[in-house]
Amino acid sequence: MTFYRFFHIRLFIQPVGKPAELYLCPQIYFNMRILTLAIGLLALGFTASAQSPAPAAKGVIYGAGTSADGAIPATELSAKMTGSTYAGKITGKVVEVCQEKGCWMKLEKENGETLMVKFKDYGFFMPKDIQGKEVILDGEAIVKEVSVKQQKHYAKDAGKSSEEIEKIKAPKKEVQFVAKGVLVL
């Protein structure tokens, strides 16, 4: 069947004195339903084939990969930043991870503070069992203002109670790290 025959349109002319109108052949509706069903099944197949990340174990690499060479502790990140950015490797202990998909994690910093880590272009995720593990991240740190809405979203993903979520009332500036590669130590 040719492309033309699959999507053909016929033009029917109304009787004299009435304007010409374009009518779609009844078969095009049937063909469009088949095409829509095929696209839906294809999308479902891609979604079903998405795999969860490998369990966190020593030596497992996520994303573009990295090594331990030249990594600084996350506690020293603020001192190493030039202006509001830092590009390089950091190391630290994971204290929290997104419980929905593993789309972010937090590293331990000084004074009980945490460093938010996201993943470049939403390209990979962390396993939920990575909490408590030491990791090396390769990427870039930036200072960013986080809206109240985004803070509440992160709190919900982390499994915080509704009382804790409702206490979030103001935006805050924080250092965030965008990782292109993660290595579990």
Jot down its keywords.
two-stranded antiparallel ribbon; five-stranded mixed barrel; 185 residues; 9 strands; globular; OB fold (Dihydrolipoamide Acetyltransferase, E2P); alpha+beta
SSE blueprint and pairings:
Layout (H helix, E strand, L loop, with lengths): L2 H4 L3 E3 L8 E3 L2 H24 L11 E3 L8 E2 L3 H4 L4 E13 L6 E5 L5 E6 L14 E13 L1 H10 L4 H5 L5 E13 L1
Parallel strand pairs: 4-5, 7-9
Antiparallel strand pairs: 1-2, 3-9, 5-6, 5-8, 6-7, 8-9
Question: What does this protein look like?
Answer:
There is one protein chain. By secondary structure, the protein is of the alpha+beta class. It folds into two domains: 3-49; 61-184, OB fold (Dihydrolipoamide Acetyltransferase, E2P), CATH 2.40.50. The chain is 25% helix and 33% strand. It has a five-stranded mixed barrel with strand order 5-6-7-9-8. The protein has a two-stranded antiparallel sheet with strand order 1-2. The radius of gyration is 26 Å and the shape is globular. The protein starts with a helix and ends with a strand. 18% of the residues are buried.
Q: Can I get a quick summary?
A:
The protein is an alpha+beta fold. It has 2 domains: 47 residues; 124 residues, OB fold (Dihydrolipoamide Acetyltransferase, E2P) (Beta Barrel). The protein is built from 5 helices and 9 strands.
